[in-house]
Structure prediction request, 187 residues.
Amino acid sequence: MTNLNLPNRITIFRIFIVPLIIAFLIKPSPFFCFIAAILFGIAAATDWLDGHIARTTGQVTRLGKLLDPIADKILIVAALIPLVGLARVPAWLATALIARDLAVSGVRSMAAAEGVVIPAGKMGKYKTGFEIAAIEFLLLNWDLEFVEFQTAGTICLLIAMTLSIISAVDYIFIYWRAKKSSDVETG
Prediction:
């Protein structure tokens, strides 16, 4: 169990928060949505925290490299789907974001099987940041004098979708170039 260092435990904690978020969204009320938003915010913060600790203390592990993106996707998908049910996110947008994540995960898995590591790119990280902001706005769904959270959340999701497309294309090109390079070396 040497791989179960502090960063990996934080990642696992993020996965275990997800059922609580879903539980509060089963029978949503403003209070339960507020609790879900707090839990989602805590879980999202652990995404930054586990990576920061792993990098700064030299605790990056294979398990962490595998678990972290899985935990991220579980968190985002688990929040997006109930938000579709609450009519706060259009189904097509949630489907497109989830499909992109599955496609990128597939590309990264194929690359890994061929010995090519495709690290998370900046655009993918920005996409995740906009998704997190969007989900927070949409979970809270407040109408304040200066901002309507539904509108702000939808705008953030549309920005995330744009960044999603850009980063997906980037991942595919990185994989394609690496594959072409390895074909030339072995050919």
User: Anything to note?
Assistant: Helices lie at 6-26, 30-56, 62-85, 91-113, 122-140, 149-186.
